[in-house]
Amino acid sequence: MKLAVFDFDSTLMDGETIDFFAEVLGFKEEVVAITERAMRGELDFYASLVERVALLKGLPYAKVVEICKQLPMMHGAKEVVAGLKERGYTVVCFSGGFRDATKPACEKLGIDADFSNFLHQENEVLTGAVGGEMMYSEAKGDMIVRLQSLLGVSRENTLVVGDGANDLSMFAYADTRVAFCAKPILKEAATHCIEVKDLREVLKIV
Predict the structure, then answer these.
(1) Alpha carbon distance 52, 31 (integer Å)
(2) Are 31 and 128 spatial neighbours (Cβ–Cβ below 8 Å)?
């Protein structure tokens, strides 16, 4: 049994979901700046997530759904999932982002399961609150250990792919660690670094 875990934003998807939301509301630059600092490990991930989502208060939920259906997948995303499955991997997505984005994308890509957070809404409008199991800097590490136990997968047979500081915790439990167009803090923890936006490069590693 083998396990491959991918981050979503800026890994499986070409961009940051929350930036697309913020653009609609007119303060993309502010959100991008917070996201960048969080991904470099300069801000606590939980605090930065709560701060960014609070700025989304008032966004119609229908707009969230519309944006999430149109998110651009990273070049080679579909091919890497298919290629890994051919090699016997169960392929999973962990995201510090949102289920509204990961669920349709993972269904499209053929990913086996996705774990992410939920945007709270009332009367079809975002309240600015967020909840879920992927809100903390250690969340991905905690979840990967549970999945390895559930599936009977060793760290030797675990592949992880990510780009930011909140992926560090899952890197700690995999022998094959791929930093994909990543921040310096994650490259330091990686066994392999990919510097081109083409996920098919992962297949050369496995």
Answers:
(1) 6
(2) no
Question: What strands lie across the sheet with 2-7, from one edge to the other?
Answer: 125-132, 113-122, 89-98, 2-7, 158-162, 176-180, 192-194
Instruction: Output the average pLDDT for the chain.
Output: 95
Q: What distances in angstroms separate CA 100 from CA 88, 118, 168, 197, one per listed residue?
A: 28, 7, 24, 24
Give the residue among 162, 150, 11, 176 at the shortest CA–CA distance from 87: 176
- Token pair listed for 187: 């490259």
Catalytic residue among 9, 100, 163, 167: 9
Closest by CA to 7, choosing from 64, 83, 80, 86, is: 80
Per the annotation, the verdict on 9 as an active-site residue is: yes
Which residue of the set 7, 100, 163, 167 is catalytic? 7
pLDDT digits (tens, 9 = 90+) for 9-37: 999 999 999 999 999 888 888 888 888 88
- Dig out the tokens for 101 from the structure: 């984005």
- The answer, yes or no, to whether residue 100 has pLDDT greater than 90, is yes
Does 190 score more than 90 pLDDT? yes
Domains of the chain, by residue range, sit at 2-205
**CATH class of the domain comprising 2-205:** alpha beta
* Residue 41 backbone dihedrals phi, psi, to 5 degrees: 85, 15
Beta bridge partners of 92: 5, 113
Mean pLDDT for 100-122 is 97
What pTM was estimated for this model as a whole? 0.94
| Active-site residue flag, 7 | yes
